[in-house]
Write a structure and sequence with these properties.
2 copies of one chain form a homodimer. With 299 residues, chain A is of the alpha/beta class. The first copy, chain A, contains 10 helices and 14 strands. Chain A folds into 2 domains: 148 residues, 2-keto-3-deoxy-galactonokinase, substrate binding domain (Nucleotidyltransferase, domain 5, 2-Layer Sandwich), CATH 3.30.420; 116 residues, 2-keto-3-deoxy-galactonokinase, C-terminal domain (Nucleotidyltransferase, domain 5, 2-Layer Sandwich), CATH 3.30.420.310. The longest helix of chain A has 15 residues. Chains A and B meet through strand 9, strand 12, helix 4, helix 6 and helix 7 of A and strand 9, strand 12, helix 4, helix 6 and helix 7 of B.
């Protein structure tokens, strides 16, 4: 395999890694040049600033995933419809410099007459599958917009988005609930987090469950310092409640940052659902997986 | 009955009405002097500015409901636990000037080890019961924090809070969903509202359903101008989904501002649940209902 420059270019940051021919990470870089900071027409210059030296390696190939492929990004890479595997995505790369720099498309699917989308997560999902040697799984990629992904035969069959991280931030920063909470998130409180999970699992909707973060504070039943963890449990519990996990015996794969992965593992354990995690390495495994397929297609 | 000065003193405004001995509204006033604008110790002066002339009527009684009775208000009126009727509330008035000026306590109840509270809505609920001649009902008071209230034997047995209006405002003003929406709410779009209701009723959680306001815009399946109405349908639909309304044949009583009442009536109609509404007059009927009970106790 050719030397690969793997780039995850999101809304708020650009992360890049230089990989050797075997897909091993040789060097990583992260700069606060998310697409929202880049003026129209300025993407090539930011790419050059960040990875220009790496691109001088003979045969270097740069694959860019994430919001850089959105309408507000470098070049729009239209969504690839599900079901989609490594090969489908490789066949729909949006080439910026043919054979040298390409953008990985996000995925779309449709349920009940409503579309759903991801952009960037698909690469981490492919990385996790490759890393864990799986070709079928139920997988969750937690975050600002959590993705629950069903994989069969090595392809992403369908997925659903849950705005869990964003709801947490909205409630924490802008709602009445935030008023009784301390500044900053402080130390995580595992007991309060678990209480939040259990209450949300039992409740019918976050619209009601969230109010408990106010009343427990009002009646001095929970210390202010524990409220952020409790609220985190409420939103993650709401996300888990909405999954149809009764009777799931196969491990759910959790792919995300370490602290968040642990929270989802705890929530799933409460539901009696086994888990396995791919860890943060997954991010850099997806692009080589796509690049390998690409080599196979002779490009 | 003595001349009554009815005051609803909330977070952002103070509304007052002068009623005659039969509970008829003679005059109304509204000033932007919600409790958040009043410095500690300044409540008596604002009351005097707003209602001082009315209080010169012989035998005038002022009853104040709303957040003026909270810890951040004029005088804290501790929550009255449910079940509670007019008489229970009258017996727990927090008197500022004995026999002349009193604050109506809010209500509390408890379910699944978690308290719930209302402050101000109880008075409108009592007003609606009095106005409609009901002593048992399932009632919804929509708003920033909607209250679903079960009434039996003339007393509020229990209630649940749903942060529906606040979630709408958070998503509209601070989330990624607001970015594709026009400024201002524009003309209500009834079809988009109904589509939002139906999608939320069918969906498992707002965390997922809300994302459809982004993807429908992304794929040009809904015009930007319709998105605020669609989002309103999503949050109200989520609130309705969480009620256990299957098989409810008795009319649900809707007590709120006119435009919001119509939205809830439409949502409940989609669920096949009959409704009746008390209209905005309910606000000024609750305090005379409490005052009447008070006269009955000889105070």
């Amino acid at each position: 395999m050719r030397p690969l420059i793997a780039i995850d270019w999101g809304t708020s940051s650009l992360r890049a890694a230089r990989l050797d021919g075997q897909g091993r990470v040789l060097e990583e870089r992260s700069v606060p040049r998310g697409i929202l900071t880049v003026p129209p027409g300025g993407f090539a210059a930011v790419f050059q600033d960040t990875c220009g030296d790496w691109m001088r390696s003979p045969g270097a190939l740069a694959l860019v995933c994430g919001m850089a492929g959105s309408r507000q990004g470098w070049v729009e890479a239209p969504y690839c419809p599900c079901p989609a595997g490594f090969g489908d995505v490789a066949a729909r790369l949006a080439w910026i410099e043919p054979g040298r720099v390409a953008i990985v498309p996000g995925l779309s699917c449709e349920a009940d007459g409503v579309p759903d989308v991801m952009r960037g997560e698909e690469t981490q999902v492919f990385g996790a599958l490759d890393l864990l040697g799986l070709d079928s799984a139920l997988l969750v990629h937690p975050g600002t917009h959590s993705k629950w992904v069903r994989i069969a035969g090595g392809r992403i069959e369908s997925f659903s988005t849950f705005m869990t991280g964003e709801f947490y931030a909205l409630l924490r920063q802008h709602s009445i609930l935030g008023r009784t909470m301390p500044d900053g998130d402080g130390e995580p409180d595992a007991a309060a987090f678990e209480r939040g999970i259990r209450y949300a699992l039992h409740s019918g909707t976050l619209l009601h469950a969230a109010f408990s973060a106010r009343t427990l504070a009002l009646f001095d039943r929970m210390p202010a310092a524990a409220l952020p963890s409790y609220l985190s449990g409420l939103v993650i519990g709401e996300e888990l409640r909405a999954q149809d996990l009764a009777g799931v015996s196969e491990a759910v794969v959790v792919v995300g940052a370490e602290a968040l992965t642990r929270r989802y593992e705890l929530g799933l354990r409460i539901l009696g659902v086994p888990t396995r995690s791919a860890g943060s390495q997954a991010a850099w495994h997806g692009l080589p997986a796509i690049a390998n397929t690409l080599d196979g297609t002779g490009k």
